[in-house]
Amino acid sequence: MKVEKVYLYENRKDVSLTCYIWDDSREMLNGKARPAVLICPGGAYLGCSDREGEPIALRFASMGYHAFVLRYSVYDEGGAFVLEDPAMLGSLLPKKICQYPNPMIEVGMAMKFIHEMSDSWLVDTKRIAVCGFSAGAHNAAMFSTQWQTKIISDALGVDAEYVRPAACILGYTLSDYTFLSEYLKGELSPELQLLYAGYNISYTGTAVPTGDILDKISPAKNVSSFTPPTFLWATSEDNLVPVQNSIRMAHALADQKVPFEIHIFEKGPHGMALATQASAGHAGDMNSDAAKWVDLCDKWLEKRFAFIENAKDE
């Protein structure tokens, strides 16, 4: 396997694509292209989580897919920013680099780069899934619902079909900002209020976005027939991104007759990643039931990305 890190901007090191590329072998695909998964870690658009990066990529690579981890524009260009003190909120001045639509456009930039390298890397560009977790799932969902718009094609200078995703995988996604704004009116801990405000400043430039902005950045409100088949998973006791976000996304997909599969596990906190020790920061990040999402996703992907069968047919 070849591991390579590339930067999507000439003058910036914070936006990168780490590529996990399978070597070709006469004993396996023998020159045939493999499908791929493009992964967006979470981090509330304040930073990008390591736990939702390489461990996820290596797991998908173990299934036989080329894997790519995109570190997109976030508030803290140097790492994983953590809001710990309410006094820190006043120091969060808006930064345009991490505001909509830049992170979503960077998913398109990554897709374009993978296409450009597809011949030498043997990537099946018709079968690339976008995958994300938490804010990264929001970013992946934004791209999967807006890849066909002029926002993407104008920014990339290519026809939108060039970067069309074949599937979308969303872990504990934030999908409906309008719902979340109503949810925030309930009783929340100071820590959660602080995090949500920081999230909003990072992605929209304001702690209290207006209704039209909320609708624009809510993937569940922008699902259409262009949205690819989608796999969703979450836990019902997630106290950071309410599980209703995954359910609302599923409802929107059903309304548009977009194929989807959803799994809601009873137990487990937010940010479980693989839910095994491979991605855990502490014991609370592990849950044997929630960890089943990976195998379920593997079977779901095989229905669309069965590269062994295609290789035999050809």
The level of helicity is 25-40%
- Tell me the span between the first and last alpha carbons: 24 Å
SSE string: EEEHEHHEHHEHHHEHEHH
Q: Which spans have pLDDT < 50 for at least 5 consecutive residues?
A: 310-314
Number of helices: 11
Strand residue content: 15-25%
Radius of gyration: 19 Å
Mean pLDDT: 92
* Overall geometric form: globular
Number of strands: 8
- Reading side by side through the largest sheet, how are the strands ordered? 1-2-4-3-5-6-7-8
- The structure class reads alpha/beta
Largest sheet properties: 8 strands, mixed
Describe the structure.
- The two termini are 24 Å apart.
- It contains 11 helices and 8 strands.
- By secondary structure, the protein is of the alpha/beta class.
- The model is unreliable at 310-314 (pLDDT under 50).
- Helix 2 (102-116) packs across helix 5.
Q: Strands, helices and their partners?
A:
Elements: E1 2-7, E2 16-21, E3 34-40, H1 54-62, E4 66-71, H2 102-116, H3 118-121, E5 123-133, H4 135-146, H5 150-156, E6 167-171, H6 177-183, H7 190-204, H8 211-216, E7 230-235, H9 244-255, E8 260-265, H10 293-305, H11 307-313
Parallel strand pairs: 3-4, 3-5, 5-6, 6-7, 7-8
Antiparallel strand pairs: 1-2, 2-4
Helix pairs in contact: 2-4, 2-5
